[in-house]
Write a structure and sequence with these properties.
Blueprint lengths: L2 H45 L3 H19 L10 H5 L4
Helix pairs in contact: 1-2
C-alpha cells in the first residue's frame, strides 16, 4: 500500500468517526429536549393553567417534538417507539 492510499484511508476513517460522534451528540441533545418537553406537556395536561391556552401550548409542544423526531406521537404516553428510536 502506498502512503497516499493510507492517508486517504485515514482521512475517510476520521471523517466517518467525526460524523458518528456528531450523530450521537445530536441524539443525546434530542433525548434531553424530549425529556424536558415531556415534563412540560405533562404539567400542562395535569395543572391546566387556563383552558384557552392549554390546547395551543400542547399542540405547539407536539409540533416541535415532531419536528425534532419526525414522529407526530413522540411525546404521547402510548407511543414508546418514537422515544425508543432516540435511545439507541
Amino acid at each position: 500500500m502506498s502512503k497516499t492510499f493510507n492517508r486517504a484511508q485515514a482521512k475517510a476513517y476520521r471523517e466517518e468517526y467525526l460524523q458518528l460522534q456528531q450523530d450521537d451528540q445530536h441524539k443525546r441533545n434530542v433525548r434531553a429536549e424530549l425529556q424536558v418537553l415531556g415534563r412540560f406537556r405533562d404539567y400542562m395536561q395535569r395543572e391546566r393553567p387556563t383552558t384557552t391556552t392549554l390546547g395551543c401550548l400542547i399542540a405547539a409542544v407536539d409540533a416541535y417534538a415532531e419536528q425534532l423526531t419526525g414522529s407526530p406521537h413522540a411525546l404521547r404516553a402510548g407511543s414508546r417507539d418514537a422515544k425508543n428510536s432516540w435511545d439507541e
